[in-house]
Amino acid sequence: MAAPESGDGNNGAARMVTLISSDNTRFEVEAAAASLSQTLQLTILDGGGGGGDGIPLPNVDSATLSKVLEYCIKHAPAAANGGAPNATAVDRAELERFDNEFVNIDQSVLYSLIMAAHNLEIEGLQSLVAKKVADMIKGKSPMEIRRTLGFPDPTPEEQAEMNAHMLEYGWAYE
Amino acid sequence: MAAPPELIDDATAEIFLRLPPDDPACLVRAALVCKRWRRILSDPAFPRRYREFHRTPPLLGFLRNRSDRDPSPQFVSTADASPFSSPEFDCKQWWTLDSRHGRVLFRCVEPDGLVVWDPITGDKHYIIPQLGNEKIDLAAAVLCAADGCNHLDCHSGPFLVVFVSADFHGLVTWASVYSSETGAWSHTDAYLDFPCCMDPVPCLLAGDALYFMAFFGMCLVKYDLALQDLSIIDMPKEHDCLMTTAMISEGGGLGLASIDGYSLLLWSRQAVTDGSEDWVHHRVIDLKTVLPIRGLRTIAHLAGVTEGANTIFVNTYVGIFAIELSSGQVRKVGEREHYTIVPYMSFYTPGMSDNRQTSWSTSILYFHECGVWCLDQRSMNQVIVVPSDYIVYLMHRSRKAPDNYAALIEILLVHYFVVSVTDNLKLLSLITGMRSPPPPTSIVRASLVSWSCVLSEPAPSGVAAARGTAPYLQAGPINHPWLGFLRYRHPTTWMLTMSFSPTDTVVVEGDALYVYAWTWDECCWVQRKAVDLKALLPVHAISFSPLIFYLPQGTDAVGVSTDAGVFVVELTSVQVRRKLLEREELLKEEGGGTSSTNLLVHLSYCEL
C-alpha cells in the first residue's frame, strides 16, 4: 500500500502520527510507517493520530510497540514503492538481514509481537514472526516444542493423551 | 521461564501455515503439543488454508520400481518421516506407471490389470483393462477428472485413466479412457495407423494433453484430452534419445529435458515462422558444477521430473539428486536407482487418513484368459452378466450388517477369494484346491441380504465351529435372486448350505440337517428345525457327511446327497419324497462333463 499523502495536505515534511501504548507511552512516527498496519491505516486516512490526539493502542505495551515500530520504519520505504518493484538487490538483501536479526529475540517477545502484528494487521511482520516460530518448532518432538515455547509441563492426563496420539502417529517419530 | 501469553487461534494458525509441507511430520507433531493446537489443526478450515497458502502440492516421495533388494515397487519418502508405506497388491508382480493429483497408477501382472492407489487413504481402485489387451505393452496415465479443479485436494475425487498401447497385430496404436465415475472404458477410442512401442515411463500432463514417450525416447505420443485424438511429436534432431523426458517448460508449455554428457539441456516447444511448432533449445545446466559430487565420473541419467514444481531427478553413481529448476536448489533424495522413478506429490495434513472413506467406486475384477468380469460399481449389488463359466459375486451390504461388504472371486473352480470391499479389497480368505460342484453357466444376480448378514455374523449356532473362517458363496441358479449356496469351512468337512428365502438357510452338519431363520431384530440366526438324517434317510449307515445339493425354487424341499444317492427331503413335513439317483450315476454324470448342478436343476424342474 502506498503511504497516504493526503489528509491534512501537508506534502512537504512527512506527516507524523502519535501512537499511545497500553502503558501510556507516546510514540511519534511517520504516518507512512504506521500505515503498514491495516488497522491504523483507516484512522490515519481519516486524519486521526495527528496533533496532540494520538491513537490509543490498549492491546500493545510500550516494549512491544517500540519493536513493532522498528519494523515498520525499516519497511515503510519499500512498502511505499508498492512492494518494492524497483528496489535494488542490495536493498532487498539489507531488508532480509534486518528481518533475520529482528526476530532473533526471546520467544516471549516473539509471542507479543505475533499478537501485536495480528491485532494491528501488519501482514509482513505477522508473516515474519510466524515463520520464525514455525522454524523454531520444525523438526522438534511435541515435548521439545513445549519446552522451546515455554509451555508448562503436561499434566498426567495431557501426557497420557499425547502418548496415545504418538502411538497413532508412530511414523512421525521414527 | 514465564508462561508465554496465550495466542489467539488465528495467530497460532499463522504459525502452522508456515510449517513445511514437504515434511508432513511437522504438522502431526504440532498437533500433539496440546489440546488447543490439536483443535486448531483438526479444524477442517485449516487444511484448506494450508493448501491454499502453499499452492503447489509438495514432493513427499517417489516410487521406485525395482532395486537390488526389492523386486516390487517401493515408496521412498523424501521427508524424514513418512505416513506412507509401500503398497501391496494381490498379484504376482506390479509396476508403477504414473502418478498425478495424489494418486499412483500401477500395472499388475497375474492377474493382469491396472490399480489406482491413493497413498493417503490407502484406497485401491482396480480397473480391468479392455478385453484382449491386458497382456500387451502399454503406457497409462492417471489424472483428476473434476472440471476446473485446482488439484490441491482431489485425491479422493473422480479420476480418469488414459491407456495407450500398440497393437502389433492390427498395426495400430490406440488410446482409451477409463472413468472412475462410470466405471467403464470409453467407447470412442483414438487411433494412430501404426503401432508405437510405448516406453514404460511416466507421462506428462501439459495443458489439455498427455505426452507419452515412445520408441525408447525417439518421439512423443500426444493424447489430446479435449479432442480425444492421438498424434506424434518428433524429438529435436540433435538430442540423445535415450536420455530425454518430457516436462513443463519454463514458459508453462511443453518442454523437454535431456542429458548430453555432463550437461542437462532444456528445450521448449515453440511456434516457428511458418506457423508450425519446433523445439527451441533454451537452457544448459552443467551437472558437474550443480551436483555436489567431486569429479562426476560417469554420465548422469535422467530419472524423472515433477510436473508442477519442475524438479528434475538425476541419477548418478552416488545417488539420486533433485534439481529444482526455479531456485537452483539441489538435494540428494535417495540411493542410486536403476529405473525411472515416479514422483509423488500431495499435501498431507494431520487427520487425513483418519477419516478414511470407503471407496464405493471400488470395482472387483477378475482376469482370466477366457474372459473378464466386473461388477457394477454404482449399485454394488449386481454382477454384470459375463459370458463365462466363472463367476464373481458381490454381496450387498444390508442396513444392519455394519461395514462388512465382501465379494467372492472364484477362479477356475478351485481358487476362491473372499475379499472385503469396504476394507480396500483386503483378502479375507483364500480357499484353494477345493473341488466343488460347478456353478451354473451364468448368474444375473447374486446379491443377497442374508449373505452379508452371514458374513458379519458368520456362524449360525449349528456351525459355530466354522467361526473364524469366512463363508463364501457358491453359484446360485439362473435368475433366482434369493437362492445360492453358502459354504463354510468346517474343521473336518465341507458343508454346503443353501438359502431358500431372503432370510432362511439350510445347513447340513454331520448327520443332521438344520433350518435357520435370520431374525432382523436380534441380528442372529435362530434354529427353526433339526432333522436327523440318519434316522430319516433309508440308508443303513451314512459314511460321509451328507451334502445338500439343491433346493428347487418354489418348494420346501431340498436335495440331499449321500453316499447312497440323492434324496429329496421335504422340510415342512420332514419326509423323504424320493430317491433321485444313485451316487454312481451322479459321479458318472460329473465325470462325464455335465454340470451336476445343471443336472439337478433339470431334475428339480422335471421330477419334483
UniProtKB/TrEMBL annotation, chain A:
InterPro entries cross-referenced by the UniProt entry = SKP1, SKP1-like, SKP1-like_dim_sf, SKP1/BTB/POZ_sf, Skp1_comp_dimer, Skp1_comp_POZ
Q: Name one Pfam family in it.
A: Skp1
Q: Which SMART domains match?
A: Skp1 (SM00512)
Q: Does the keyword Iron-sulfur apply?
A: no
Residues of the SKP1 component POZ domain: 16-75
Source species, domain of life: Eukaryota
**Pathway, per Swiss-Prot/TrEMBL?**
Protein modification; protein ubiquitination
Q: Residue limits of the SKP1 component dimerisation domain?
A: 124-163
State the SUPFAM superfamilies in the record.
Answer: POZ domain, Skp1 dimerisation domain-like
The biological processes this protein is annotated with in GO are: jasmonic acid mediated signaling pathway; protein ubiquitination; ubiquitin-dependent protein catabolic process
Q: Which UniProt keywords apply?
A: Ubl conjugation pathway
Report the family membership. Belongs to the SKP1 family.
Q: How does it assemble?
A: Part of a SCF (SKP1-cullin-F-box) protein ligase complex.
The cross-references to PANTHER family, in alphabetical order and at most eight, read:
SKP1 (PTHR11165)
Q: What does this protein's UniProt record list under function?
A: Involved in ubiquitination and subsequent proteasomal degradation of target proteins. Together with CUL1, RBX1 and a F-box protein, it forms a SCF E3 ubiquitin ligase complex. The functional specificity of this complex depends on the type of F-box protein. In the SCF complex, it serves as an adapter that links the F-box protein to CUL1.
Q: By what name is this protein known?
A: SKP1-like protein
Q: Please name the source species.
A: Eleusine coracana subsp. coracana
What gene makes this protein?
A: ga14711
TrEMBL record, chain B:
Residue numbers spanned by region Disordered: 65-85
Stretches assigned to the F-box domain: 13-46
Q: Which InterPro entries match?
A: AT5G49610-like_b-prop, F-box-like_dom_sf, F-box_dom
Q: Where is the F-box protein AT5G49610-like beta-propeller domain?
A: 97-350
- Pfam families with a match to the protein in the record: Beta-prop_AT5G49610-like, F-box-like
Signal peptide position in this chain?
none
Q: Which organism is it from?
A: Eleusine coracana subsp. coracana
Q: Where is the composition biased (Polar residues)?
A: 74-85
Q: What is this protein called?
A: F-box domain-containing protein
